[in-house]
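Weekly structure sync, notes
Attendees: PL (lead), two postdocs, one rotation student
Agenda item 3: pending single-chain targets
PL asked that the sequence for the first pending target be pasted directly into the notes so everyone works from the same version. It is reproduced below exactly as submitted, 349 residues in total.
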Amino acid sequence: MTESQAPAVLLVAGAGRSGTSTFAGLARVLGLSVPQPEVGPDPSNPRGFSEPQWVVDLHERLLRGVGVQVADARPSAWWDAAEVCTDEAARIRVAGWLEEQLAPGTDLVLKDPRLGWFVPLWRAAALRVGARPVLATVVRAPGEVVASRQTHYGDRLGAAHLAAGWLNMQLHVERATRCPVGEDAAGPRVLVRYADLLEDWVRATTHVGRVLDLVALREPTSERVRDGHRFVDPSLHRTTTGLGELDLPASLRELVEETWTELDLLAGPGADGPEAHARLDELRAAYVDLYSDAEAVTRSSVLAARRDRRPPTPPDAGPHTADTVPHGLRAMVPGPVRRGLRRAVGRPR
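Predicted structure, written out during the meeting:
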């Protein structure tokens, strides 16, 4: 079996609220298969998520196991997730499930906002079962992503945290989805602008189909194109907030703006090459430095928060440590010292 004959597994990555559901839904409408059952629609995504429930449940368990959040802003979280990606038991489990979903002549699309943490795991599993992993990352203006998350998921952690989470996810997903050394740089991945999907989804998905060699996207039937027009609703583009409208620290705002500029360029034709990679590597290193500095400056706040979470000692917690010391041993301690110790623990007499 040649590579072009192997079934494809389209992995859709990107930060939550970036348009990944729109893209994955279009891939499904055009003929790719979403393993069942799917996560159902809700008010935040009335047309559905196109997410296999098994994949979502797996990712949630894996992230909980290593203490990582779906939009974790910590650069170190990628090292925690990487341990899972190299775990042989996890690879066997994912490969076994994936093999059950594959059918002759059918390409799969797998999407979940958590998938970005586990790109190497899915890539390895697909290769293990003889499938062809291809990757699409959907990118959207970060101001819109942050504002959309605030609208649909709440603003408990603030715009700065959400912007940092976007930055961490997009910079590291970009690195994780690059072609392994020695492969054709145009083959296994493509970046898709959410704005392009809304403006002309046919042109956008046809481009993806050509780059990733997906016939269903490259040569859709007229009936499926009609279904696609019914599926894409530009009125769902309800958030158009710019970065300037968000309350962000200047250094973070600058880094987010520069990263978005580079990702926007990377989504263009012929831009996925060493020069772009080098610029994004510099931005990723700059974010690691920025986050490390922020952690160092806020160390006192972290420690105070930990103290605040400690449960208070109940009044009837039992005898004090001093009361459990044998009398003979207590008598060996000079009286003034004993009285000082009692005052220190709040038990003078």
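Discussion points:
- The first helix runs from residue 20 to 29.
- The CA atoms of residues 144 and 157 lie 17 Å apart.
Action: rotation student to compare against the earlier draft before next sync.
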